[in-house]
């Protein structure tokens, strides 16, 4: 059995080895480490449940699973081997040193063919909590589908580099013309210190991380901390916004749970917005037949393609109200919020009902 520390050491060697050579420690190809956060819903939330879901997923992807150590798995394919850490049976981490396009293709197929899996979705505020000294920010705002191509400011491609990129982002966000486009797509950070080691880590809003240099164990600790914060965020959404009805002894009902209110930060064309949301495909992964109920007001009883649970959405030109069913995943709300920030308006935020 492979010790987890030995696995981290092998990935550190892989990061520091020129691509194209022999396997590092007979285990991983040289190259940068790509890590993907996956949210899993096994039938049983336990190591055995995670194993069953992992093996089912591997079979669909034509990958051969092999257990390396405690909740650490290798998935061998024709071109590369990837590694999945299921220590947290709900929030998995996939590691690979092969080409990023190949890793992304496997992740997309895994999510598209299995409703029990989704990627993580990190809204702007959470992405900004990546450990270390942020030395670059990347914006790739694209709102063609949701606000239309006739809008003057619908796309932004910017990369800020330097000692204070967050300050440059704040400056851009203070301009009313561009404030709505300041979605944070990715953050690059130097994590660690001279005593414990250093690493260069890039995180993006889809729960993807790249360790480009340094000590992978240091990078892994930073990734774990952000994953822990994401778990707290998702579970907090579920605790607060799942609506549960409980019968009373006198035939009445009690209702527990709040309505989630998402403020768009601007007025939007609601008809265009609902036309782009419910296409049953990435990035929103929602299906519904929306109905207009009043001028500029629409409603939709939707199904989330992740875990297949329902949710109700009510739209106005400035806000969206979301009601989660008792089993609807909090990741559904995280995905919706994050992608509205990336594809509608960067100022979109969750507010108190």
Topology at a glance:
Blueprint: H1 4-15, E1 33-40, H2 47-60, E2 64-69, E3 72-76, E4 81-85, E5 91-96, H3 100-113, E6 117-119, H4 124-127, E7 133-142, H5 144-147, E8 155-161, H6 165-173, E9 186-193, E10 197-204, E11 208-214, H7 216-241, E12 244-247, E13 253-256, E14 260-263, H8 270-277, E15 286-287, E16 291-294, E17 297-304, E18 310-315, E19 319-324, H9 330-343, E20 349-351
Antiparallel strand pairs: 1-5, 1-6, 1-11, 2-3, 3-4, 4-5, 7-8, 7-9, 9-10, 10-11, 12-13, 14-19, 14-20, 15-17, 16-17, 17-18, 18-19
Helix pairs in contact: 7-9
Describe this structure in words.
By secondary structure, the chain is α+β, with helices and mostly antiparallel strands. Among the domains are: about 5-120, TATA-Binding Protein (2-Layer Sandwich); about 250-350, TATA-Binding Protein. The protein is built from 9 helices and 20 strands. The strands form 3 sheets. Strands 1, 2, 3, 4, 5, 6, 7, 8, 9, 10 and 11 form an 11-stranded antiparallel sheet that branches. Strands 14, 15, 16, 17, 18, 19 and 20 form a 7-stranded antiparallel sheet that branches. The chain has a two-stranded antiparallel sheet with strand order 12-13. A hairpin with a 5-residue loop joins strand 12 and strand 13. Helix 7 (about 215-240) crosses helix 9. The N and C termini lie far apart (about 50 Å).
